[in-house]
Amino acid sequence: MLDEKTIEELHSYYDRLPGGICLVKADDSEEILLANAELLNYYQCANWQEFKELTGGTYRGMVEASDYIPLKDIVRVKGQPEANYAYFQFPYRTREGHFNKGNALLIRTTQKGHLVHQCHEEQVQPRAR
User: Fold this and answer.
1) Measured at the alpha carbon of residue 14, what is the angle toward residues 8 and 18, in degrees to the nearest 5?
2) What SS3 state is found at 88?
């Protein structure tokens, strides 16, 4: 979908922005194409490989199983029917087993001609369990 050169270019941009950001394929696989450094930090991962192992490389793996809603449904339900964005909250577990909650802005957009979901996440207070 996105080649390595494009991913590197996107990282050079997204790694400088505040908050956690990831790009996810806008199909049923919901494969994570990119996660910036801040998002890796939220999940207590030192690098992309640790994050991919923790999440299985998919959006479904980023959230608690009982709270999973497909991204396409989040846009449809939380946003207006014609909207390409939505705000939502989701709980997640870090690599070290801590439970946190994230506020996110989900935007349906294109990158190099490919439809993707772009998530901008902000960490909320850690949850007690």
Assistant:
1) 155
2) strand
Q: What is the dihedral of CA 51, 43, 104, 57, to 10 degrees?
A: 20
Coil vs helix vs strand at 112:
coil
- pLDDT tens for 115-124 read 778 778 887 7
Q: Tell me the backbone φ, ψ of residue 41, rounded to 5 degrees.
A: -65, -45
Angle (CA) 19 129 123, round 5°: 5
Amino acid at 17: L
Q: Which two tokens stand for residue 53?
A: 């192992």
Assess contact for 42 and 54: CB atoms under 8 A: no
For 1-52, the pLDDT digits (tens) are 667 888 788 878 888 888 899 989 889 999 999 999 999 999 999 999 999 9
Neighbours of 40 (CB within 10 A): 20
Query: Where is 38: in which H helix or E strand?
Result: helix 37-42
Strand order in 20-25's β-sheet? 32-35, 20-25, 114-123, 99-111, 85-93
Q: 122 forms bridges with which residues in the sheet?
A: 103
Q: pTM for the complete prediction?
A: 0.83
